[in-house]
Design goal:
The protein has 343 residues and is mainly α. It has helices at 81-101, 105-112, 116-124, 131-141, 145-158, 164-171, 185-205, 209-224, 226-231, 235-248, 268-271, 276-293, 298-309, 314-321, 325-342, and strands at residues 253-254, 257-258.
Length: 343
Amino acid sequence: MNRFSDPPEAPDEPPPPGEPQPAGAAGPPAAPRQNATDKPAGPGFPARAGKPSGRGGRTANGRRPGRPGRPLGPIAPHVSSAHRAWLVPVREAYLAAALSTGLTMSRLGEAVYISKPKISELLSGKLYPRWELLYDVAVTLGVSFWPLYRLWRQAALETENKSRTWVEKSAARVTMTATRATPPLDLTAFRDLTEGGYRLYGGVFLIGASCDAALEETYDQLWLSWDQALASRDARRYTFTVLRTAVMTRTSHIDGRPEFSAAAFDTVALRSLTDEDEAAEQIAESIALFKAMGRLPHNQLDVMVLRALHGMATEDVSQLLGLPLATVLSDERHARRFLDDSL
């Protein structure tokens, strides 16, 4: 069966990972497509050709050495941020394998039993794959498939115009594991330290389920790219940038500026008032303030969201944003000057 065509009807809708099975459900979403012995549970792809020996440039096993693979092209311009959330880590895993083992798109296609053009389209984002194919690619490249599945599912429903039926059918032929994998311990500890502050930031722009989705996307992305985060110049800055992207892609924008006037109804200043007239006046002032704040540069906006709207200490803002304390103080000073002039 072509993995990019509609699969046969699945008897039931499989719940997303971590959600309870419906009454009467018969275990995992569907039977596995292959036995555990058919494919290793980790990085694996066809063996590389040996070094040339003998006449005619043939290898020790009698085969001609393969040509170097074509370089991985750029991500297609139309690819959404939610799609990029899982596509970028998969591309990075492919590039790492290409560098360390000489993996090519042709050999990756052989490992997952599809053509090289289909692999190229998947890695460029030109086509949104079914989960059964992406799962095979993840296992072959050694990518953690639980966070990958959640990001794939979320992007399919949010930005790729895929129906819930399409999502569930395309995952129905794959059984991953009976036990949910867990993220690295240091990432779990990092989440415990940062989730409260990240929620305060995201809650200014997003409400309820949208804020929750942005946070879950952030930590799933970090799970997939945790090694890169730790290897970056400042892991705190790397992680906050991931959060900011997840939040801003869900935030309404007017003329390229974030629109978050709804946050005027939940500020520190408003919560401290009990008089209705004073509260109404405070809301009007906050709306005007937020419209002006939307015109601030990114770093200044982030600082003011935490300092002016949530009253967070400067040192805590520095830690959460991954910015030097002097930079935070400078950004706040310039932002307040701009807002004073604007208002």
